[in-house]
Each structure stands twice: as structure tokens, then as C-alpha cells.
Amino acid sequence: MSDTSTLIATLNYFHPLSEGVQEFLKKHAYRTSFLKGDLLLAAGQVCEHIYFIKKGSVRGFIKEGDKDITTWITAENELVTSIYGLSKKRPALENMQALEDCEMLTLTLADLENLYLQFPEFNIVTRKLLERYYQDAEGRAFIARLTNAENKYTQFLAKYGHLSNRIPLKYIASFLGMTLETLSRVRKRLSSKRA
Fold first, then answer.
1. How many Cα atoms within 13 Å fall on the side-chain side of residue 49?
2. Cβ distance 93 to 127 under 8 Å?
3. Which tens digits make up the pLDDT trace of 128-145?
4. Does the N terminus or the C terminus of the chain have fewer Cβ atoms within 10 A?
5. How far is residue 100's CA from residue 156's CA, in Å, rounded to a whole number?
6. Residue range 32-48, pLDDT digits in tens
7. What number of CA atoms fall less than 13 Å from residue 150's CA on the CB side?
8. Which residues face 129 on adjacent strands?
9. Would you list the DSSP string of 167-185?
10. What is the pLDDT of residues 51-88, one digit of tens each?
11. Which residues lie closer than 8 Å to 10 by C-beta, 6 or more apart?
12. How far apart are CA 11 and CA 143, in angstroms?
């Protein structure tokens, strides 16, 4: 059995978990680890798992020609999977990559379906999680639509400040839709304003 206490505490935040749900998670969630640079999922594959990040950070990205575009970044105490393929088993649109060595708790989508069937109250947890992730997606879309590089980076810091010194700048720049040079200039300007 894996230590699921962090996962259970995180999910309890959204809706109290019954003893049955907690026992199910203890029995079915298993440990997985990925090294920095490993792909959790490649675009075009069908995702069969949902991952809870116990340690480390992960990004989503797409390829456009030789360019790779970071679409999201996340870290500890978050769940990651291919939302696009979650219910209909469609091939993923994005790649998921470990940005640091990661320790995960993993649940198969088949186990997740069984969890819904055996414990209907877990559907409430999932609905609230999806609402939260939809809000996060809306926040990312907002940042993407800003045209001023400094405003984009300021918004990034407001939401992801805890990751700003952990994530390589090239991925932050890609996430914000700017060049690495532009991001470096923005960071320099902002740090001189604070001085």
C-alpha cells in the first residue's frame, strides 16, 4: 500500500471522503516515479492513468514544427492526466513531461471508473476538481490573450510565483508566448523596479 495521506487530504479539501473512498484509494493508488525529462504521456497516445504529484513538477506541451510550446505547468499536490481523452479514450493532444524528478501516486482510469460506480459521492469531488481546473484553464487563456509582456509575467508570478525559480526560463517564456530574451528583459526590468 502506498502512502495516500497527501492525496486524501487534497481531495478532502474539495469534499469529505468517506472511509470507503479512502480505503479504495489506499488499495488502488500505486507509486510511480519519473526522472527529469521523462514523458508521462506522448501526444497521440491514449492516457490510461491519472497522476497525483507528490514531489516534482510537470508541464504539458505541444509540438508545432520544431517548436515546442508549453501549455501548462504544475507541481506538488496537483492531479495530471489528459482531460481530452479522459472519458472517451481519445488520443492525447498534448505531451506531459517531468520537469524535475517526480514521485507520483497513480490510479488507472479503469479504477477511477470503479471508484465512481462504487462510491457515487466521489463524483462530487471530481466535479469540484474539474471546476477548479476549468478556472485554471480560463486563467491561462487570460494570460495568453494579454499583449504586454510585463503584464503576462506579472500575472504568471501572481498565479505561479512558487514555481518561478524552479521551472527553466525557456519553458516559462514558451508558456507566456514570448522569447527567452523578452522574458529576461522583463525580469530585469521588474527586479530593478523592486530595488
1. 17
2. no
3. 998 998 899 898 889 888
4. C
5. 20
6. 999 999 999 999 999 99
7. 7
8. none
9. S-HHHHHHHHTS-HHHHHH
10. 999 999 999 999 999 999 999 999 999 999 998 877 77
11. 52, 77
12. 27
| Single-letter amino acid, residue 109 | L
Residue 106, C-alpha cell as written in the block: 497513480
Q: How many helices (H) and strands (E) does the chain have?
A: 7, 8
Q: What three-state secondary structure class fits 36?
A: coil
The answer to whether the beta carbons of residues 137 and 69 sit under 8 Å apart is: no
Residue whose entry in the numeric block shows the C-alpha cell 468517506: 18
H-helix segments, the chain: 5-14, 19-28, 109-118, 122-145, 149-160, 169-176, 180-194
In this structure, what C-alpha cell is assigned to residue 114?
A: 470503479
Q: Where are the alpha helices (DSSP H) in 15-56?
A: 19-28
Instruction: Decide if 86 contacts 133 (C-beta within 8 A).
Output: no
Grid-cell match 521551472, residue found:
167
SS3 57: strand
Q: What angle do CA 54, 61, 126 make, to 5 degrees?
A: 50
- 13-51 in b/e form (b: 16+ CB < 10 A) is eebebeeebbebbeebbeebebeeeeebbebeeebebbb
Specify the residue for cell string 501572481: 158
The residue to which cell 472511509 is assigned: 19
